[in-house]
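Last lecture ended with a question: if I hand you only a sequence, what can you say about the shape of the protein? Today we answer it with a concrete record. The protein is Tetraacyldisaccharide 4'-kinase. Below, first the input exactly as provided, then the predicted structure, then a couple of comments.
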Amino acid sequence: MRPPLFWYRDNSLLSVLLAPIGAIYAAATARRVAQDPKHRASVPVICIGNINAGGTGKTPTAIALTQKLVEMGQTPHIVSRGYGGSLAGPVQVSPANHDANDVGDEPLLLTEFAPTWVSKDRALGVKAAESAGASVILLDDGFQNPSVFKDLSIVTVDAVKGFGNGRVLPAGPLREFANRGLARADAMLVIGPERARKSFQPSLPSNCARLNGQLDALPTGMPWKGQRVLAFAGIGHPEKFFATLKGLGADVVRGEALDDHQPFTEALLTRLETEAKARGLNLVTTEKDSVRLPDAFRPKVSVLPVRLSIADWTPLDEKLAQIGITRQ
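The predicted structure:
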C-alpha cells in the first residue's frame, strides 16, 4: 500500500483520531524491544534499521557499508528476514537457485556484494553466518527485533520525509516514537539532497552520531539525457526514483508508482510493454525491482542503479573501532 498523505500533515484530524491506537502500537513495541536478546554472536553484529515504516535507504546503506567493510579487510555476511519470500531459512541466497518468490528482492540484490542469508528467525540466521565464517554480520532491518544482541545500530532516515507527523502507526509513519528509537541507536544516517539534510535537524541523544549521505546514480553507459522513458518502481518511495531520472536529464513521460515489493504479474508487464511501444518510450526500473522481473522480460527494461555516498565516514569509523572493527 502507498503511505497515506496524512502521515506527513501535522494537524490531520484522522491522525489525531488514530493517535490512541498508535500509542498502543508504540507501547507494544517498547515492551518487545525491552526483552533480553536470545543470542549474542561471537562476531560484531551491525543492525541497519529504521524508525519509519517503508523505504528510508536501508538497502543502499547495507551495500555501502558492506563495500567499506570489505575494503577494510573484513568478511561481512548479511542476514535478512527476506520480506516477500516463502523460505523460512536459514538459507544462503543463491541467484542460481532462488528467485524473489523464495527469498525476496532485497536479498537477491545484496548477495551480489556479500554472502547473504535469509531467515525468518534472525538469531538462527546470525548463527548460520557465524558458522560460515563471517567476521562481521550486517542485520538488514530488525531494529525493533530483540532476538539478537546488536553491537552497533544505525537508523536510516529519509531527509525529505523526516519522521512525518511524529506519530506511530496507523496515525503516522513511525514504528515507535522517534525519541525512544534514537535513544537506542548508535548512529543516525540522514539520506537525501543537501538542502533537505540541512533542514532536518532532530534532537539527538549524546550516544547517537549523525552521518549524512545522498543517493547517486551509477554510470550505466545509457545516455539518459533526452531519453523518453516510462519509469516504474515498486519501492518505498517511487517518486525519488523518478526524480533521480529527471535529474539525469531523462524525460519521464510517465512514472508508474507501484506498491513496495509489488509482484510483477504478466498482466502488469504486458500493459507496461504495450504502453511503452505505443508511445515510443523506453522502460526503466530500479536495480531492486529488476531482480523480480522474469528472465525473459529483463532485456526489455533498462536498469538505473543508485549507490549511497557518504562524504564523511569519520563518525562511523569511530563507532566501528569501538566494537573492534578496524582495517586489517
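Comments.
1. Residues 13-33 form the longest helix (21 residues).
2. The first strand starts at residue 45 and ends at 49.
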